[in-house]
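Quick question about two entries, pasted in order.
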Amino acid sequence: MIEPPSGSRVAANTVTPGCCAPVIDSALSDAEAAQLAGALTLLAHPIRLRLLAILARHGGHVCVCDLEAALPVKQPTVSHHLRLLRDGGLIEGERRGQWIYYAVRREALATVRGVLEEFWARMAD
């Protein structure tokens, strides 16, 4: 990685006298990077990916008891990951008696897909 001389600060798209033309282009704003990082953080765990896959494949609401039975972890771990997915807006929960039934928020997943597709399209340009 090429860094400016110690003590100097150079903006990303400026040309330093005696230097070559800038090759660094900030293809991602701070807000876009934060949004993408948030989405990737939510998806960056095998249990959360499996939960999303189960819910997406089912298409409707799935009882938390069935989710717990389908995964190789204990109930507190499943609840933790469901809470993260719910707080991240990727799933929704509906209480029915003593159980909570979860479903994927398809519009939220479509948004994540769009952000990822846009990111990779920018990287290809």
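Here is the second entry:
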Amino acid sequence: MTQSFSTPLSPAYDASEVPQDGLSQQLKGYRLATAEIIYHMPDHPAVLQSFLWQHLDIAPKYPELHKFLDFWVEEIEGSLHSVHVARYDLVTPGNSRHVDAWMRLH
């Protein structure tokens, strides 16, 4: 049984326009995505194995993760059991607070 994890990508996503450096990607909405991929071992199908994948990706469609999962289904023998995804915003708005007093030192 072959599973496909492809989903229609939004028109705004174009692989040729993906910036190459991490900061530029984060400013364009990419966030650190971590996926725990649980799969059946090829030689022992009753045994489950875990694989962790991390990459900058765009939530909630996760196009990079979908490309990797499509590759997995096509090229890797272990069939997928489940995928758990978490994301983390590396670039966040700065925290600010009101200062009650200023002190100047020489």
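Reply: The mean pLDDT is 79. The chain is about 20% helix and 25% strand. Hope that helps.
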